[in-house]
Design brief:
single chain, 439 residues, alpha/beta, 6-stranded parallel β-sheet, 5-stranded parallel β-sheet, 14 strands, globular
């Protein structure tokens, strides 16, 4: 049974102490195993991918067969349930519309004396998308990573996802790729797929950035290849915090907590309420609802690890605790959720009102479900258009402006002991002097 704790308390209740101590920490054994995998992929290329796929996924693939053929992708699209296709296409449209609103343009400004300053926005050229498909095929993660990249204008998108028994990617993921217009799909997953994207193999050209969630091994691999390629986020276990008042429906609160608990390992599921009676009813609902769910053993593990119901003296204190937890998802199931929006400083996505269930954001609203976890919401944002572009500063200077500013630049360079910097400007002053005198 999920424990009920009080906050604030001295000492801090055990479930809360464990939750607040959560931070992205690497397992030395995982890091060592991943380091070996990456070394093998870098050295042996496709041969390593095939051997590692056999070892970890139990599927035999051969070099040259890692890329999913166009015919297999087409067959998957044709076999897709028509109703699911309608839902996918509607979700894609929503995600595209939301991320279109994030777009910014290059800008340039005249700064006098003929000087132009600005920022040039350029899409990243090639991006790899990691799509998990271990226990469940998370095709929604493909939608969430691919669409903002397309909105940003990324030239080349390639998908990596673990193979099923046939040696191909899960058919729903293949169909989603077709709906998105992506034809470069590889049946390889885990740390070895991250290595292939970062270093390249005979079959898989290297990318410039990798996005998408995965297992602890996939995340560890992303951490280790950062610098060779860009990494958008290092996603960890999912998290949800529901702030609920006395008027909240305990069935809805419990259902939303369970919706995250079924993700499994390391998931944090927390209800914060200023009503002790509601806390007890949520506790009862969690017990009743979880027993009827097909993944209840996974749910039980998640609730035992990081499940908690917390009673606070006021919603103000509840908001303070929510901000300390800095969760991936936060729900405000309170009478006037908009009243508290500005007070919530740290969360990846904020859901307002009883109808805004977390799965609405996971699948359909259009906002992105690739979010910061394990406290990273204190400084990081959800995946979006900006993750797929880079900006270049533009400086168009003129001799007239340099004549006015050279003394400042030289003085600052010399103060740092960088005489060559100073000389690069001083020599231009010397060149400019004769022509100025001639006029």
């Amino acid at each position: 049974m999920v424990p009920i704790a009080s906050y604030p308390s001295e000492p801090l209740a055990a479930p809360l102490a464990a939750l607040l101590a959560r931070r992205p920490e690497s397992d030395p054994e995982v890091e060592d195993a991943v380091r070996d995998i990456l070394r093998q992929v870098r050295k042996e290329g496709d041969a390593a991918l095939c051997a590692l796929t056999q070892r970890f996924d139990g599927v035999e693939v051969r070099p040259g067969q890692l890329r999913v053929s166009a015919s297999v992708l087409a067959e998957a699209e044709a076999a897709l349930d028509p109703n699911l296709r309608v839902s996918m296409e509607a979700a894609i449209a929503n995600i595209r519309a939301f991320h279109e609103r994030q777009k910014l343009n290059s800008w340039f400004v005249e700064d006098g004396d003929g000087v132009m300053l600005g920022k040039k926005i350029t899409p990243i050229e090639r991006v790899g998308l990691c799509v998990p498909a271990g226990e469940v095929p998370l095709f929604s993660s493909l939608l969430m990573t691919a669409v903002p990249a397309q909105v940003a204008g990324v030239d080349q998108l390639c998908v990596v996802s673990p193979p099923v028994e046939t040696g191909e990617v899960h058919p729903t993921i293949a169909a989603a790729a077709r709906l998105l217009g992506i034809d470069e799909v590889y049946a390889v997953g885990g740390a070895q797929a991250v290595g292939a994207l970062a270093y390249g193999t005979e079959s898989i050209p290297p990318v410039h950035k990798i996005v998408g969630p995965g297992s602890p091994y996939t995340v560890a691999a992303q951490r280790q290849v950062f610098g060779t390629v860009g990494i958008a986020l290092l996603p960890g276990p999912s998290e949800i915090v529901v702030l609920a008042d006395a008027g909240a429906d305990p069935r809805l609160v419990a259902a939303d907590l369970l919706s995250q608990a079924e993700h499994g390992w390391g998931v944090a599921c927390v209800c914060i309420t200023d009503c002790a009676a509601l806390a007890r009813r949520v506790q009862e609902e969690l017990e009743a609802q979880r027993a009827a769910l097909p993944r209840h053993s996974i749910i039980d593990r998640a609730l035992e690890e990081y499940g908690a119901i917390v009673v606070v003296p006021s919603l103000e204190v509840g908001i303070e605790l929510l901000n300390r937890l800095a969760p991936e998802h936060a729900e405000l199931q309170v009478a006037d959720p908009w009243r508290w929006v500005d007070s919530v400083r740290h969360c990846g996505a904020l859901f307002l009102g009883a109808a805004a269930s977390e799965p609405v954001g996971d699948y359909f609203a259009g906002t992105n479900h690739v979010l910061p976890t394990q406290g990273a919401a204190r400084y990081a944002s959800s995946l979006g258009w900006a993750d797929f572009v880079k900006t270049t500063s533009i400086i168009a200077y003129t001799p007239e402006r340099l004549a006015h500013t050279a003394e400042h630049i030289v003085r600052m360079a010399q103060a740092e002991g960088l005489e060559a910097h100073a000389q690069a400007v001083r020599i231009r002053q010397q060149q400019a002097t004769p022509s100025t005198t001639a006029r």
